[in-house]
Design goal:
Blueprint lengths: L3 H4 L10 H6 L17 H8 L7 H11 L2 H13 L5 H10 L6 H4 L5 H9 L1 H13 L1 H17 L9 E5 L5 E5 L4 E2 L2 E2 L2 H4 L12 E2 L3 E2 L13 E3 L4 E4 L2 E2 L35 H11 L1
Antiparallel strand pairs: 1-2, 3-6, 4-5, 7-8, 8-9
């Protein structure tokens, strides 16, 4: 566990972008599993900054899904075309369409803005996935570094959507007030991880409430998160153990995995996203 988690350290900010990582020799080609790069602590802090303040269960699903970056684009398109569905109806549609993607990717279908952000920044997603496969413990440490900074500067605190719990150094948890509903945090890393500036009060805002109840249990909702002290990432109550070495054969032991009864089909009306929803996603992607 990095000393920076408890003591803090000087952090020189730059916006996340492909150019900076390419120049650093860390361009991740093709898929995360093929990446053999090793990220520094500073680079990992940059990499996780846009998602570090997500609630633990959502963050766990994002980290695992990033290792299947080749599936994110199609999943984002499906989520947008079916954004009129929600709750139990959405869960049923995911099963009925026999979607072929990994359950960790399917778990994000209730969150079109998150998938849109990941698809729109696919090189970042591949870099994140590569780090999760090869440096999982260090990725978790980076999340804790950023959470501690946001907490120290007063941006990360209890609110109407989430409870922030500090179990000790490197163990800041963010959990939904109602485990059946999530609101995606929207924030600018340049603001929330830096010292507050006079006249600039904007911190963390939230998207609409998204229902992720019992119908989404097959995708691990309700039993996913972290054991921060042991560097364990939990999905559906089991440690997620996909790595660069076993990525081709690893199958996570979901308790009730989604059932695929045949080839992918489309049994539902396709609709484009509403203008207000689309504009909200563009804000989240940046």
């Amino acid at each position: 566990m990095r000393e920076a988690i408890s003591t803090g350290r000087n952090f020189k900010w730059r916006r996340l972008g492909l150019a900076g990582l390419v120049c650093a020799g860390l361009f991740v080609p093709d898929t995360p599993a093929k990446a053999q790069v090793q990220f520094s602590a500073q680079q990992l802090d940059d990499l996780v900054s846009r998602i570090a303040l997500y609630p633990d269960p959502l963050l766990a699903q994002v980290l695992t899904a990033s290792t299947y970056s080749e599936q994110i684009g199609e999943a984002a398109q499906w989520a947008e075309q079916h954004s009129y569905l929600s709750g139990d109806g959405l869960a049923a549609a995911i099963q009925q369409d026999n979607l072929p993607w990994d359950p960790s990717v399917q778990a994000l279908l209730p969150f079109p803005s998150v998938l849109d952000m990941m698809a729109g920044n696919i090189f970042w997603t591949r870099q994140l996935g590569g780090a999760v496969l090869g440096q999982r413990g260090e990725v978790m440490d980076a999340v804790q570094v950023m959470r501690q900074k946001a907490r120290d500067f007063g941006y990360l605190q209890d609110n109407g959507q989430y409870r922030v719990m500090n179990g000790g150094p490197g163990q800041i948890q963010i959990m939904p007030v109602d485990p059946g509903f999530y609101c995606v945090p929207v924030y600018d890393p340049l603001i929330v991880f830096g010292r507050p500036r006079v006249g600039l009060a904007v911190g963390i805002s939230f998207g609409p409430r998204i229902a992720v109840g019992a119908a989404f249990a097959p995708w691990g909702w309700g039993r996913s998160g972290f054991e921060w002290r042991s560097h364990s990432l939990l999905v559906d109550g089991h440690a997620w153990a996909r790595t660069r070495e076993n990525h081709e054969i690893y199958r996570h032991p979901y308790v009730r995995p989604p059932h695929i009864a045949g080839p992918r089909v489309e049994r539902h009306e396709l609709r484009p996203a509403r203008p207000e929803r689309r504009s909200g996603r563009e804000e989240h992607r940046r």
